[in-house]
Design a protein that fits this description.
Blueprint lengths: L3 H13 L3 H9 L12 H8 L6 H9 L3 H10 L7 H10 L3 H10 L7 H8 L4 H14 L5 H11 L5 H15 L6
Length: 181
């Protein structure tokens, strides 16, 4: 069980570093959490440096409906302790693209089984597909499935804008290496 004093200390950092302008902007964009303090990623990186990575703490933070808690959890989960099953569960629980970006950058891309996750997520929910494309951009997998999926997503205008933007980045990155006729 995670020490409540430890959680209170983390939450105190969030309160102290609150950025109301960012928090208000998130609300204006329709991004809803129980709490959003508006902390920038670099501030969360600084907070993470104050704590020892711990899977139980990261899981506790991940379960909170607090933007910064979820983002911090991606920095505090020890890479060597994350299992494919836990990564799969987290990918299904990601509420917004911003959290997916943090999870991919801080955690998923560092997992030894990232490639296998990404290939599986290509067939998953839109958020999982987004994670797969983000991992492709970070790790540059050679599989043609990523470009094919990106092309499918770009052709489907009913897909969310954040997913289509990730697909466009894949097309841009992989298209540079493809000779033109």
């Amino acid at each position: 069980m995670v020490d409540s004093i430890l959680l209170s200390d983390i939450h105190a950092h969030f309160r102290r570093l609150r950025n109301g302008e960012v928090a208000d902007n998130l609300l204006a964009q329709g991004i809803r959490y129980r709490l959003a303090w508006g902390l920038e990623s670099y501030r969360l990186k600084d907070i993470a440096a104050l704590y020892t990575p711990d899977a139980e703490l990261a899981e506790t933070l991940w379960k909170e409906d607090v933007r910064e808690s979820k983002m911090l959890a991606t920095r505090l989960y020890p890479v060597g302790q994350m299992t494919p099953e836990t990564a799969e569960r987290w990918s299904r629980e990601i509420p917004y693209a911003e959290i997916a970006d943090q999870a991919c950058m801080n955690l998923f891309a560092r997992l030894p089984f990232a490639r296998q996750l990404a290939l599986g997520w290509l067939k998953g929910s839109p958020m999982q597909q987004y994670c797969a494309l983000q991992l492709q951009l970070r790790l540059e997998f050679a599989e043609p499935e990523f470009r094919k999926k990106a092309q499918e997503i770009m052709a489907d205008y009913s897909q969310p804008a954040w997913l289509r933007a990730a697909a466009l980045r894949i097309e841009h990155e992989t298209g540079r290496d493809t000779p033109t006729a």
